[in-house]
Sequence to fold (786 residues):
Amino acid sequence: MTDNGSSRRERGIQSYREVMTLDPPTRSDPTFNEGLLDFVFAEVWTRPGLSRRDRRFVTLACVAAADAVAPIEEHVYAALNSGDISYDELTEVILHFAVYCGWPKGSLFTQIASEQWERIHRERGTEVPPPTPIQPLSTAADPELRLQGGEEAFRVINETPSAPARDHPYYGAGILNFVFGEMWQRPGLGLRERRLVTVACVALDDTQIPIRSHVYASLKSGDISYAEMKEVSLQFAAYYGWPKASYLASVIEEINDQLTAG
Amino acid sequence: MTDNGSSRRERGIQSYREVMTLDPPTRSDPTFNEGLLDFVFAEVWTRPGLSRRDRRFVTLACVAAADAVAPIEEHVYAALNSGDISYDELTEVILHFAVYCGWPKGSLFTQIASEQWERIHRERGTEVPPPTPIQPLSTAADPELRLQGGEEAFRVINETPSAPARDHPYYGAGILNFVFGEMWQRPGLGLRERRLVTVACVALDDTQIPIRSHVYASLKSGDISYAEMKEVSLQFAAYYGWPKASYLASVIEEINDQLTAG
Amino acid sequence: MTDNGSSRRERGIQSYREVMTLDPPTRSDPTFNEGLLDFVFAEVWTRPGLSRRDRRFVTLACVAAADAVAPIEEHVYAALNSGDISYDELTEVILHFAVYCGWPKGSLFTQIASEQWERIHRERGTEVPPPTPIQPLSTAADPELRLQGGEEAFRVINETPSAPARDHPYYGAGILNFVFGEMWQRPGLGLRERRLVTVACVALDDTQIPIRSHVYASLKSGDISYAEMKEVSLQFAAYYGWPKASYLASVIEEINDQLTAG
Fold:
């Protein structure tokens, strides 16, 4: 069979079914047909090099950041209904996302996660399991020990020899005390998964230094390979647009050159 | 009659009626009265140098990016109801916008476009025409020819002698294969209109290199003049705020200096 | 003298000098002249009803969110150089902003704050004072007490009878444990100032429920009056665009109606 237009549309529909766990709606607009089906589903989601599960972490961060209610609902449903991501993992993704993209956006994401989780159980005729009770913090309660733990986690996770000085509230009370002192160290979501969410978040926020530092740490640690990271940038481009992806793609090349030359 | 406050308000109300195709609501807050009527409608939309139709492309991209439901509804309605932009053009604007600002935001934009198109026909007592059938792609289906076409379109549209290497998925599978290999080459929306949407999208995304390259290509190609581009930046400032417009305005000056010095 | 164009421009220049603590640059584009000078400086910053200091909190959040380097530099410089906001207050603003709009954007904001603080001291020929050492947390270290403190602060600050359940990490580990358990309770920035920053952050993030809850709490507590809040919305419109301000303005009206009817 030749690779003509109709077979491409068929591949898009098939990919949509697999990813979204539903049949695509019948639509007549080019955004959906030529854009989403023919390109995003037929040609991005189907690529080897990054698993469907991994592509979901990037996509979830993008739809949540865009505040687009229907896409958040659809992708949350698909992530849970496919079994690719567990509900407890999703709730950690939301916390991680809220820290990187702000609590206001996390609020809608949380609400939609609960609603879609209920919808899935309703469709299956099963009971929604009781929520997992809040886990005791795995990190020190003592403020000084917590800061020290945050400094150590900052160095390890960022693959950097030094942590920032504590004397700026952004760093002392924020980054060291909470973001690295607690949040990144939480169980329930792997470091690789946290990196996928983070790379999407810093890329959509497009502040240059965090993009560089998280791409560097992801590649340097080996948690995400160079080939995978290039797929992350394509997935991100599809879900947050080419302008922001352009900088991410150029940083990936540059950091990879630097790491392979070193 | 002197140009005092009351005549300015009158000009704002008159401009609102012409642009929005409806009477303004009665409001008591300064955001609407002193801001939107006295400035945005009285003094931005009424400026010569960029047509009302052209200002709509910039504005539609801004309201869609801002996820503000009511402004999207109002500006989509006004664009269609005034006859300034046809429904088929609007659907191409949405596809172009979705590619530049991400599919999640395109989803709401699409939904609102359908709703407002129905509203207009309901108000007029006419039938919504059947959707325009999907057009055959004007570009090659063969993957290699499609990539080659994308490289050529990239060079022509960006006014640049070379296209990026294919070996990064962001470029090969994304930019060359789809964004320039198909999307920019679609009939149904002119190149000038695509540039207006794109400049607004890259400006609100505030990634530096895409802003520079699209302002450069728009001016260099002559599709948008320097005088028009300055109006684009003011229109953008009104709808996406001064901080981001400030960078766009400075890039326009710089690129114009470079082009006129050459 | 009549209120003609030149007196308005003069008012804009004078206002620019007072707000930005520098002479405006000479520019020829309408974004700067007809937009920023004639409207934003002549007609927004000069309005009574909200102090210049208060307008700065809204503006700083907007420019930081927009990632526009030059505007962040200019407004940080102006806030500090005018004496309207102290450096220690600014660092708390940055932490608060980072929590609401994400750490990546906070990183650039922090860096620029340090640079502009050094610039001011260099211009004055004075020494940059040593940074204020990190203060001991004023809140409980014990995880259970911290959560309880977060629940109490959530109720008081949000003017609501109940706090969210702890069993979702977004709420348990994030909102209750850190955002209300520590951040909002920090000394160094008043509750009114934190509300001004927060309203700007939730408005630019455009998620509906947080906008409503923070506008409600600000008005209900009396920390920000209805008349002041309307000025917040105009200031926000100038710095983040009308589409997002339009929703904020409509929520303010609705909540005020609800509170005055009660």
Q: What stands out?
A: Chain B is about 70% helix and 0% strand. Chain B touches chain A through 53 residues (CB under 8 Å).
